[in-house]
Amino acid sequence: MDLKFTELGQDEFAFRETDGETVKAEITWTQLADLMVMEYTFVEEKLRNQGLAKELVDRAVAYARENQFKMQPVCSYVAETFERSDEYNDVKA
């Protein structure tokens, strides 16, 4: 997946996979200083159950680690992913 970092607005960001103007998959957050408030994860229906949502989470986690940010999941998918594995403990707020 070719995820592109996208600025959505003031302090709002995403990693997105698009096909032209159509968003195929994305994970979005609001940046509050060194805290990423993870708000939304989306994968187009025909692309679901292929591990893309976890790939989105992993890319956001890599970004958090690169920038020494913490992550607060508001999105239920991100929260559930964090709960299932200790591999994300270093970025949990």
UniProtKB/TrEMBL annotation:
Protein name, UniProt field: GNAT family N-acetyltransferase
Q: Which residues form the N-acetyltransferase domain?
A: 5-93
The record ties this protein, via SUPFAM superfamilies, to: Acyl-CoA N-acyltransferases (Nat)
- Domain of life, per the record? Bacteria
Among the GO molecular function terms of this UniProt record, one is: transferase activity
Spell out where the chain crosses the membrane. none
- Quote the Pfam families the UniProt record gives: Acetyltransf_CG (PF14542)
